[in-house]
Specification:
By secondary structure, this protein is an alpha/beta fold. Helices cover about 35% and strands about 15% of the residues. It has 2 domains: about 10-85, Helicase, Ruva Protein, domain 3 (Orthogonal Bundle); about 100-305, Rossmann fold, CATH 3.40.50.150. The strands form 2 sheets. The protein has a 7-stranded mixed beta sheet with strand order 5-4-3-6-7-9-8, sandwiched between helices. It has a two-stranded antiparallel ribbon with strand order 1-2. The longest helix is centred in the middle third of the chain and has 16 residues, at about 115-130.
């Protein structure tokens, strides 16, 4: 490993001396800090624990243990990938979302904590409805990516079926693998297509949920390197204002929601007020509710459909 510009306190060991876990953690952390990597120490711990096939916190009990040459050989390329700002989740090939472990790669976005809050809001709403005498409902997840939302709703919710759509065939391959790995392939139905265009004539859903692309095109170059260089742009950017797909979903939601059904959308900072205004202007919705995420950002808009619109025709148009 190169040692240029590394502080003396974390220089490589002298010739003949092994790397210990603690020494390697310190050196690698300094290396990633030098490369501008955020959360460098935590990421190094995850990488080394992955290579050593142990839990991250177990490293703290084994600081003086030497790292074997074969472990070093596996660790080095992973560290170099992280230095290139490749996201940790893509390097490890996995991400955790609520109760799920999901496979992820550059075909899909990495699931975010804010989206866990979107799922929680949906589950709270459904649990709060009087379901006596009702059949189990159906949910629609538009732009499923890795399948995080759809699989969580299928696992934790009362739904008989969750339909998950995406415009990317590669994303659906990832979602399908995750559905099968989590034993949810019989509940989640995957469909290739954009927006609400894959909804079939006469279909109605108890929930329409989406974490769609919502980055404005002019803002893309300002995104963090891990996002801008590695995550799929088509899953991030939605036109000049970031709202093109959300606009379509709001306009078409009444045609796919059953009476009392919920529209639940995640969006970017500063967009919630605009989207809530669109929903309020759509005849048939109750007053929308804006939910802040744990950082205090207005992140989620919820609205219940109480009206009726004309059914959708074979090509998705109102008839």
């Amino acid at each position: 490993m190169a040692s240029q510009a590394v502080p003396a306190a974390v220089q490589p060991p002298r010739a003949g001396e092994p790397w210990t876990i603690l020494h390697l953690l310190r050196w690698s952390t300094a290396y990633l800090v030098e490369k501008g990597v955020p959360s460098a120490r935590l990421d190094v711990e995850h990488l080394l624990a992955y290579v050593m096939e142990t839990e991250r916190l177990q490293l703290y009990l084994r600081f003086e243990q030497p790292v074997t040459p074969s472990e070093l050989a596996r660790f080095r390329p992973l560290l170099l990938e992280r230095a290139r700002r490749k996201p940790l989740q893509y390097i490890l090939g996995r991400a955790f979302f609520r109760d799920l472990e999901l496979a992820v790669d550059s075909r899909v976005l990495i699931p975010r904590p804010e989206t866990e809050e979107l799922v929680e809001a949906v589950l709270r709403h459904v649990a709060g409805q009087d379901s006596s005498g009702r059949e189990r409902g159906r949910a629609l997840d538009v732009g499923t990516g890795s399948g995080a939302i759809a699989l969580s709703l299928a696992k934790e919710g009362p739904f008989e079926r969750v339909v998950a759509t995406d415009a990317s065939s590669g994303a659906l391959e990832v979602a399908r693998a995750n559905a099968e790995a989590n034993g949810l392939g019989e509940v989640v139905e995957l469909r290739l297509g954009e927006g609400l265009g894959v909804v079939r004539p006469g279909e109605r859903f108890q929930v329409l949920v989406s974490n769609p692309p919502y980055v404005a095109l002019p803002d893309f170059e300002g995104l963090q390197a891990e996002v801008r260089l590695w995550e799929p742009k088509e899953a991030l950017v939605a036109g000049e204002d970031g709202l093109s797909l959300i606009r379509e979903i709001v306009a078409g939601a009444g045609g796919v929601l059953q009476e009392g059904g919920l529209l639940a959308l995640e969006m970017g900072a500063g967009q919630a007020g605009i989207v809530a205004g669109w929903i309020a202007a759509e005849r048939g919705f109750q007053a929308p509710r804006v939910v802040r995420d744990l950082a205090g950002t207005e992140r989620i808009v919820l609205a219940e459909w109480t009206g009726r619109k004309a059914p959708r025709g074979a090509e998705g148009e109102a008839v």
